[in-house]
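Onboarding guide, step 5: your first structure request.
Type a short instruction followed by the sequence, for example:

Predict the 3D structure of this protein.
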Amino acid sequence: MNNIKKTTYSFQSESKQLLHLMIHSLYSNKDIFLRELISNASDAIEKLNFQSISHPNLYEKDAKTKIQISINEKEKTIIISDNGIGMTNQEVIDNLGTIAKSGTKLFLESIEKIEKNNNQFVGKFGVGFYSAFIVSKKVSVSTRYAGMPIDQSTLWESLGEGEFSVSTIKKETRGTEICLYLKPEEEEFLQIWKIKSIISKYTDHINVPIEIQTFDEKNKVYTWEQINKATAIWTINKSNINNQQYKDFYKQITNEENEPLIWSHNQVEGKLEYISLLYIPMKSTWDLWNKENKNGLKLYIKKIYIMDNAEQFLPNYLRFVKGIIDSNDLPLNISRETLQENKISQQLKKSLTKKILQTLTKLANEDNEKYKIFWKEFGLVFKEGPAEDHENKNIILNLLRFSAISTESQEQTLSLQNYIQNMLPEQEKIYYITSDSYNSAYTSPHLELFKKKKIDVLLLSDRIDEWMMNYITEFQGKKFQSVSTTDSSINKLTEDNNNAINKKEKETEILLFIEKIKSILGDQVKDVKLTYKLTNTPAIVVTDANAMTTQMAKLFLAAGQSVNPIKYIFEINPNHKFINKIMNIKNENEIKDWIFLLFEEALLAEKGTLENPNQFINLVNKLLLIQNN
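The system replies with structure tokens like these:
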């Protein structure tokens, strides 16, 4: 290889930051550098195989693809080469000069929140190549894009500090060769057995031969020895694959350290012919809510790699699922744009969705502890399901988990099936409450009647819950009912609470008081009514059955949308001492103040905030002074 010209560039400032972090603190397991470089080489070969379908000349004179590793103990170097697609000069500058072009800043912000020995983010931003500097004092990359002239090859070199250089060279073979000049303290990686053990651990199932150069002492010649199986694991009969192999493959394709929670491996024949290997992770990833991040499956067609993150095969609420799909029916030249509209891909999406839901149902029925892990990590995402997937809504509803009065815990463990089984004979509906937090839901005055009667109520405090409940109307014939909304079924439950009213005289007095409240509050309320569902609280506000709920209004406001003020129904507990005390006050102005205080208290309990908290505080202070005089 002969240098023709050489240009020096500076890394971007964020790239310098990230490179320093990668070298000095990010990796606790240095072995991972080899996994990252082998993974990149494998990707380059898969891209070549795909592009050569329409351009067979890209293979040049060598259609046998492979990855090779050679060690030079004297020079203290490791060379990792592939005969894949290679890179052009501009691609070298773009890809190796700018770390994580689309996500460096986000990566840096995220990495500050985790422990230094956490490796889970590597590979998510295209920064895996830079792990080479963990063990290397210098890295050089020589590469030639397949089909390009040999004198238009490129050499990239860097010490992993502030600069890198790019030279135009001659390179006879297509593909990429990476030379690592090891640091003195990293010379253990010059041992062939060490390299073999790393390959066995991380990349044994890469679907391309990995060879290492060895010296035959007997014949005094160098030979190449294949050190991986080079068989795609999903093509093997699952009876011949052990659990550890499944787990290792998961780590290989996801670059994650955690083992998967569960997986499903299926070969389907018939109208559709495909193989799927789907994993439910043990832990959620930091970018699960990042809208720019495209989660999906690796797509192969007839064992030929097509693309990563093919999200067209999964509904969005299952975006946490990892794995591969290998189809015999899709055309090899399919693009990401046409995949969405392709009828076969739509059928595959339906089939894979059902398989994942079946896998989760099996997990829920057979291993409650593991299902708790799943729900803790992915429950929030899964709650998008009822709105997104009407076809599988019943299965999804069975898989939902909730907090409730009966569970006495913030942990969401109660299924709707168990709720139904524990319903009281007089109970008509499935009751729930939505709120900003578990504590505000559990202590809400709306629950007083239900706690007294030992009727369970679902406590929904995730932001998505109010939105989700718009798409859930019933379960096994039982309708859902918010306890903070007016409903006849709730009124029926209060019938035996009416005994405390001293019939005509008391009833007349209360009704007159209700009319007074209406005249004082005016159009601030939709109506004022008596309620018998309270035990410890003097008054509450509820929404009409057809009105927007408090939590829904909060969702719209949080999204920056304007919302008309909610007009609540103000409900008064005639059995409360506080109400009786206010009724006996003779001073009209003082009565007005107490009624406004009562109303503001009810609004605060319902909304968690007041439009004018200062006014409320002044009113409390004023009434306290009156009481003390």
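Each response can be followed by summary notes, for example: Residues 600 and 616 are 7 Å apart (CA to CA).
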